[in-house]
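Sharing in case it's useful to others searching the archive later.

Someone asked me privately for the predicted structure of Oleosin, so I'm posting the question and my answer publicly. Question first, with the sequence:
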Amino acid sequence: MTHQMVKAATAVTAGGSLLVLSGLTLAVTVIALTIATPLFVIFSPVLVPALIAAALLATGLVTSGGFGVAAVTVLSWIYRYVSGRHPAAADQWDSAGMKLASRAREMKDRAAQLTGAAAS
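And my answer, the predicted structure tokens:
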């Protein structure tokens, strides 16, 4: 019984303190927004284009970084594949290549048969 009381008291204390912290954060946010709104209105001709430019710059940098990581990953995989270190999914890659080559041979033979039959 005492163990459950301690759990309940701890939960109420933690929940209450988090609720107070949430209320304080909301109050500070409302006050800061009330103070900053006139500044946003005054400086909006400068801030809006600056924010758009910053967003485009950040998007470009993140995209560039992502493509760079992808390129390094692919180049690393290709190096391991060529050097015979058997990277992940190499068997699937080989199987797909064999299936593609087999289909290409079948299509070539079929085309030869059709053109041979049309010529006679």
